[in-house]
Amino acid sequence: MPLTLSLVEVLIMLRRIHVFYSGRVQGVGFRFITEDLARKLGVSGWVKNLPDSRVELIAEAGESALKDFLVRIKQYFRSYIQDIDIQWQDPTGEFSDFGINF
Fold first, then answer.
1. How many structural domains does the chain have?
2. Catalytic site residue from 39, 49, 54, 101
3. How far is it between the farthest Cα atoms of the chain?
C-alpha cells in the first residue's frame, strides 16, 4: 500500500528560512544562481535585492534540503558575502516554486 501524507504531515516535515545576505551580493548574479540552485534542490520561495544593498531570501523545503541550499549559496558566493542573518521558522506552504521578486 502506498504511503500518503496529509497536508499537515507534509508541513510538519518542512521548514522555512528567512535570510538576509550582506556584502557585495548585488550585481554578481546572486539571485539567478540562487534561483537555479533552489530549483535543482526542490526548494520553493523567492529571492530579491533590497534598496540597502542586501539580498533577502525566503525559502521552504525539508530541513536537510535547506541546509544544503544554504551551504551551496555560501560556497558559491564566499568572496562576496560579508554577513548572513538566518531565521528558521515554521513553514506556511504558500510557495509552489522558486522565483525572483523585483
1. 1
2. 49
3. 53
Catalytic residue, chosen from 16, 31, 72, 101, is 31
- C-alpha distances (whole Å) from 49 to each of 2, 30, 59, 72 are 42, 9, 15, 19
End-to-end Cα distance, the chain: 45
Q: Which three cell numbers stand for residue 84?
A: 548572513
CA–CA separation, 78 vs 35, rounded Å? 17
Go through the chain and tell me how many residues it has. 102
Whole-number pLDDT of residue 13: 79
Q: What is the pTM of this model?
A: 0.88
Residue 24 lies in a domain: yes
Burial of residue 57 (CB within 10 Å: 0-12, 13-18, 19+) is buried
Chunked into runs of 10 residues, the chain (102 residues) has average pLDDT values of 57 86 97 98 98 98 96 98 97 96 94
Q: State the CATH number of the domain containing residue 25.
A: 3.30.70.100
